Each structure stands twice: as C-alpha cells, then as structure tokens.
Amino acid sequence: MSKLVSSFLFLVILFVGFTLPLSAIAQSKRTVLERKKSRLKSDIEYKNTLLKKNENEKTNTLNQLVLLQDKISKRVELIATINSEVKYLNGQIESNEDLIASMERDVETLKEEYAKMIQFAYRNRSSYDKIMYVFASSDFNQAYKRLSYLQQYAEFRKKQTEDINRLESVLIVKNGELLAERTEKQGLLSAELDQKSTLAQEKNLHQKIYASLETKEEELKKEIKEKQKERQQMQMAIDRIIAEEIRLAQKKNATKKGEWSLTPEAKALANGFTANKGKLPWPVEKGTITDKYGVHSHAVLKTIKINNFGIGISTNKGATARVVYAGEVSKVIVIPGAGKAVIVRHGDYLTVYGNLKEVYVAAGDQVKVKQIIGEVVTIDGKTELQFQIHKGVKGTTLDPALWLYKAH
User: Fold this and answer.
1) Are residues 188 and 260 both part of a single domain?
2) CB 152 within 8 A of CB 1
C-alpha cells in the first residue's frame, strides 16, 4: 500500500513540480521564436510591397537588387527560426511521449493492485469476518489497531479509485497536447519547405538582376558619382551651419573658440538624445534600410567603395519624414538633383532628413518628436529618405542604425 502511495505521489510531484515550470520556460522560448517569426514575415512582406511597386513602375534595378538581397537574408533567418521551432516541438513531443508512457505504466500498476484488493475484499466481504477479526485480538490495543487498519484500508481503496481516474484524465489531456504538437510540427515542416522553395526562386532572380546590372557598369559609375556629389554637398552645408552657429556664439562671447555653446535647455536636449540611443523612432513611419552607413563596397561593382554619411531608408511613395527627437530646425537646404533637406538641432546633435520633395517647416521652428516635416521625393520610382546624425562642433557622423529602434 505504501509503495503505491509513494509511486503516485512521486508522479504527481514530478508532473506538477517539474513539468509545469519547464513548460513555462519552454513556452517563453516559444513565444520569443513566434515573435521573431512574425517580425521577419512582416519585414519580408513589406519588402515584397516595395519590390512590387518598383516592378510596376519599372524603376531603379539597383534598388531592387538591394531590397532583394535584404529579403533573401531575412528569409534565411526565417527558415532558421522555423527550424528552431521544429527542434523545440521535437523536444516537447519526446518529453510528452516519455511522460505518457510513464503515466500509462503507473495506471496499469494501480489497476493491477486495485484488482488484487477487490479480490481480497470479495473473499473477505462478510461483516462477521471483519468483526471476528477485531474480536480475535489478544488485547484492546490490538483490537483498536485492527479496526483502524480496516478503516484505513477502506479509505485507501476509495483514494486509489480517485487517483486512477485523476491520472487517466491527465493522460487524456497530455495525449491531446501530443496530437496537437505533431500536427503543428507537420505544418511547420511544410512551411519550411515552402520558404526554401521561395528562397531558391529569389536567389535565382537576384542572380539575373545582378548579371543585368553588371552590363551597365558605366551607367552605375555615373550614378555613384552623382550620389557621392550630393552627399558631399549636404556635408558642406552641415559644416557651414555648424561654423555659423559657433561664429554667432563667439560674437556674443558666450563660448570659447572652436566650441559650441549650449544653454541649460540645449544641454538637457543633448542628454536626452544620448539617453535614447537605440530607442529613437524611425524618421519614416515604415521603411527598410537599403543603403547602410560608412564605407562599404557597392552592391554590384565590388571594387568601388561607397562612403555614406548616414543611411538610406526605402519607403512607400508619398511617405512623409518625421523628427526623431524634439529640437529646433537649423536650416532647410536645397540640393540640386536630390530635392530638399531639413537639419534639426538637438543640443550638440544634428539630425538630417534628405531627399525631400516638400518641406513643412522653416528655420527657427521648434519641432516635437514624430512631427511631420516633409514628404520624401520619389525619383525613378525609388522613394528613399537620406537620414544622418552628427555630433559636436566637428559634425562627427554617427551610424543612425545604432540609434534607431531595432534598426540593427
């Protein structure tokens, strides 16, 4: 009897005290994988939207190539995430199969022992036999112990029946979970095959576009030269703005030579900007980085190095640019061939929003976070905002991808 009680108690402790905490941990891991998968799918769908618009408008194939490259990268990551989910489910299925087998063995043991008790009770079912068993005691203490034993035996039989029913109920639930997990696993494996098939098609398309662009080397070189000229013009404009603000401050004797004077309010803005590194909102409501920061090889002409002072963010046609942090508009400039640009000062930080078709603010305006400041221009079907972050009197450029929320 004590063996059966111990066995069942151990099973309950194992199931409740061990399985549930592990289940909570596993579920947390599963939630992380599900969120990542959802984010990757959303990102891929958005790039599909941009690519579709480019195809419809017969636009810049270089932008298509970059978008496709990034989409392929995200799809590879999505496949790896699905694969992680399959591995997670394999572990869950194996764990549940072991637990179910253990439970089934315990149920059989309990039923066997219960059957023996029923047979024993049937052979000794007479009330007279029970009374004689008590009266046959050698003294009162023994009679009391025998009576207690009979009562405990009856209670144990009742409890064991409940234990069998309870364990069988748990088994029904676990078998249902196992069936659902196996079905879900099949769905994930099917989804993984679909993603791999799509990936192969995208890689094939990428090769075709790449080969096509390789034949347009001179055209690409001209485009690179024009783009670099636009960036240099913007950088010179920023340098002039910084120099002018320092000159005015020095004229008022409010600053030392070569330093940027900051009022207490400006210092607070700068401190707030610094504290929000990695948490700043994107300068467009929705977009994807298609031109990264710094010196890097051209997407097609690998021997040519591109130097980007900020990042290019591809977005929807008609999209608007918005301020990433509160500040003051320092200047609105016009860059030939690249539309307009707005420069906003946040203490000793400057944020630059280039490639704008229309501008809704003017120099001296106080702007709030996420305030709309202009519409992004669409050139040859490509809608790409140029976004930069500069700091200090030297206008040191910073990588915006490290400052924007989940941009890297």
Assistant:
1) no
2) no
Residue ranges making up the domain that contains 184: 2-214
- For residue 188, is it within any domain? yes
Runs of H (alpha helix) within 14-60:
20-56
The one-character DSSP state at 401 is G
What end-to-end distance do the CA atoms of the chain give, in Å? 63
Whether residue 408 is contained in a domain is answered as: no
Could you tell me the two tokens for 52? 């579709």
Question: CA angle, 291 as apex, 77 and 277 as ends, to 5°?
Answer: 80
pLDDT in tens, 204-255: 888 887 777 777 777 777 877 777 777 777 778 777 777 777 676 656 555 5
Distance of alpha carbon 214 from alpha carbon 322, whole angstroms: 36
**Cα–Cα dist 122/115, whole Å:** 10
Q: How far is CA 369 from CA 322, 324, 346, in A?
A: 8, 5, 11
Q: What is the Cα–Cα distance from 380 to 328, expressed in whole angstroms?
A: 32
Question: CATH code at 278?
Answer: 2.70.70.10
